Amino acid sequence: MQSFTLPLYAPEEYPRHAPGGILPFLAAYLHEDGEARPAVVVVPGGAYCFVSAGEAEPVARAFYERGYQAFVAVYTTDPTSTKPLGAQPLNDVARAVRLVRRRAGEWRVLPDRVAVCGFSAGGHLAGCLAVNWASPLIAPAPDGVSCRPDAAVLGYPVVTMGEGTHPDTYRTLLGEAPSQEMRDVMSLEKQVRADTPPMFLWHTRDDEAVPVENSLLLEEALRAHGVVHEMHIFRTGVHGLSVATPEWSQGDWGLDTEATMRAAVCEAIEEGAQSVFPGWPVAQLGGIEGWQEKWAARSAEKRAIRRPDEAIALWPQMADLFLRGVWG
């Protein structure tokens, strides 16, 4: 396997502050046999506050093992929620898809078979690109390379910015009082069109963080517009199950996608913030080291309830069959 990372922007191009100087980047996991293959760009979740490591490299490796050239897009997030992110993450992932197509020959990618695969807020982001790829919110590419995904795979996605949305995702992306127009643009079910690419959706029925109604709303819109799709609702399972394998549940997730969050929180503490992500009072933390310890403990608690599940672990195989079916 050939693996590497590269930034999506030159420092002078990036329109926001980059905590710790860390720019959005693309991580690649490539076969080296010379064969041109379909590609999947993985978009992890994290409520737009961070980029979840558990939904990054493990997912990329699952697709790599099924014969894809696999990538992870680490996009703009903001754990401080100081300024709504708006369309910046969408532009980041559009850049990632364009970069994969632009370098398709070098990276041995079939440029007409590039899918996005997102989870939770990353599912919203991947789905947002799938429905808004022609939107003026996305900066045009000077060379005309398309950012339209050829398919989208969405796991327990945030879909709507209306009733039933995920509050942290909504607030970090849009702020406290967005316009109705922006809410509508970022509500995937309201933007589906006949030229929306094929979609594979999966969710668990008792997801308490992102209600299954999100996927049901999107499925209804896809059906109404005649978009090829497939949806699987699993009987039970907590939010954030990623690939749901024993290896994943052990928490050795490889790619560090959370460095931007750590840098942003450290900057906030140094600048005198009274509370930091995820809403912890600084006075009770004991500084940066205190936050790091508490975040590690919180992450361990979440891993403890995200146990492997043989049924849910089948979704990458299902998604692979769906993609190969729609692509022929």
Description of the structure:
By secondary structure, the protein is an alpha/beta fold. The chain has eleven helices and ten strands. It has helices spanning 57-64, 88-102, 104-107, 121-132, 167-174, 180-185, 213-224, 246-249, 259-270, 288-305, 315-327; strands spanning 2-7, 25-30, 37-43, 69-74, 109-119, 151-155, 199-204, 229-234, 275-276, 280-281. The strands form two sheets. It has an eight-stranded mixed beta sheet, sandwiched between helices. Strands 9-10 form a two-stranded antiparallel ribbon. Helix 1 links the parallel strand 3 and strand 4. It is globular and about 60 Å long. The mean pLDDT is 95.
Concise synopsis of the structure shown:
The chain has helices at 57-64, 88-102, 104-107, 121-132, 167-174, 180-185, 213-224, 246-249, 259-270, 288-305, 315-327; strands at residues 2-7, 25-30, 37-43, 69-74, 109-119, 151-155, 199-204, 229-234, 275-276, 280-281. It is α/β, with parallel strands linked by helices.
Structural class: alpha/beta
Order of strands across the widest beta sheet? Answer: 1-2-4-3-5-6-7-8
Number of helices: 11
Runs with pLDDT <50, length 5+? none
CA gyration radius, whole angstroms = 19 Å
Alpha carbon gap, first and last residue: 26 Å
Q: Give a quick account of the main beta sheet: strands, pairing sense, barrel closure.
A: 8 strands, mixed
Number of strands: 10
Order of helices and strands: EEEHEHHEHEHHEHEHHEEHH
Give the overall shape: globular
What helical percentage do the residues reach? 25-40%
